[in-house]
Amino acid sequence: MILNIVTLSKIQFAFAVMFHFLFVPLTLGLSILIAIMESMYVKTGDETYLKMTKFWGKLFLINFALGVVTGITLEFQFGTNWGEFSSYVGDIFASVLAIEILAAFFLESSMIGIWTFGWNKISKKAHMIVAWLIAFASNFSAVWILIANAWMQHPVGYELRNGRAELVDLSQIITQKYAILEITHTLPASYLLAAFFVLSICAYHFLKGRSDKILKKSFNIASLFGLFSVFLLLLSGHFNGVNVAKVQPSKFAAMENHWHTEENASVYLFSLPDEKNEKSIMEFGRLKGLLSMMAFNNPNSTVKGLKEFSKEERPPVFLVYTAFRIMVMLGTYFIAVFGFAYLKRKTIQNRKVFLKILLCSLPLPYIAIQLGWVVTEVGRQPWVVFNLLKTQNAVSYIALSQVLTSLIFFVLIYAFIGLTGFYLIYKNATKLPE
Hints:
Structural class: mainly alpha
Strand order of the largest sheet: 1-2
Mean pLDDT: 90
């Protein structure tokens, strides 16, 4: 790899956004779970639900703070590292992000303040409504960011004027199919992660011989929430694949290591890309017609191969293919985990082997989400805005030393923030709920 401005800027942004996204999904999912728990408290008057709300709420607040701190730097990078991108599409991209901040983030932040300090100062119902407003604002914020990302994947609602892309139809950007599908896939993935987080912490306490009502009820709610999320994820994943095959065929071909255009195209359970010789090697487990079915819901449809695209416009096939394959395998694993957890929830404390597997599997949903973004973002390359602006033309005119120095500082500072944050989450999660 040649270290230049483009490469270093990509590494820096990828590092910052992937680190930030360690915290975002948990915020999205845990906010809903906490709102559900507090609603159960208001409805039943059972103090157990109140204790559950406060226990998981403390972990939510720590995670939220880490997400805010690590997310601030991303917006600055659009000016420092990606100045040409900001200049070329800022009329569109900045408009969407501005709506996210004004319509969602401010609401989320203010409601979190009221929720944190409002215990015994406002009524139970009012406090519960605040919890739901936090859940709504958190997810609404994510919706706008995903809309912005979807526009980079499939730009619509713009015209090229004066050498830049200018907004002409905001409604088209908001309602386009790519945005809706990205939202309906990313949000359930976040809910799955939050459910897995709760189940794993409950598993830790069960293995320690702790079995109070707070843990049991938390496990029951999270197992059902996770099971619901994983099936939403499975359904939306198929429709996303169909859409990608239509609007980003090079990405779809890379996801499946598919080199030759053909009808009745096959999926292989295992294969390896040979990018140098433009072919697939070590193919195993052929499923004839399945790739055509996945792409166009028709086993006889024609699927474009990577050879249809010039080498300069192909994404890194090995990385995209490997990330997609592992993500799919993890998704299958999550179906089994949540299915077993929900069916055996009444006797889960006695299933020590499963509890150990559950606890050790906590990093897996984080890995799956990160791999999903690798497929999404790396699969779009060499474009930063698909078929409109290439990544190499989007960087700022700055010195290589500036990017390298800032990257080193990012790694050091984020390492400190991450270690501190994860320690606080671990410390509070491993305490028995009061």
